[in-house]
């Protein structure tokens, strides 16, 4: 089964961010928006990597 690199990268980073966000969510003095900023960054990087695919390959 072929997995596009952009999808694989997004899944990998999402898994890692999920693990880190558990620690951040339980921290009392942490910024509440930090996991959201990182997740949006992961989505942006995956979208940037996906833009190189031709529309015929979808």
Describe the structure.
It is elongated and about 40 Å long. The chain starts with a helix and ends in an 8-residue tail after the last helix. It has one domain (5-49). α1 packs antiparallel against α2. The model has no long low-confidence stretch (mean pLDDT 75). With 58 residues, the protein is mainly α. The protein is 67% helix and 0% strand.
Explain the layout of strands and helices:
Elements: H1 5-26, H2 34-50
Features of this protein?
2 helices, single chain, transmembrane, membrane, 58 residues, 67% helix, transmembrane helix, mainly alpha, elongated
Number of domains: 1
Q: Would you count the extended β strands for me?
A: 0
Strand proportion? under 5%
Question: How confident overall, as mean pLDDT?
Answer: 75
Supply the number of helical segments: 2
Q: What would you report as the Rg, rounded to the nearest angstrom?
A: 14 Å
Structural class: mainly alpha
Structure at a glance:
The chain contains two helices and no strands. With 58 residues, it is an all-alpha fold. It has one domain (5-49).
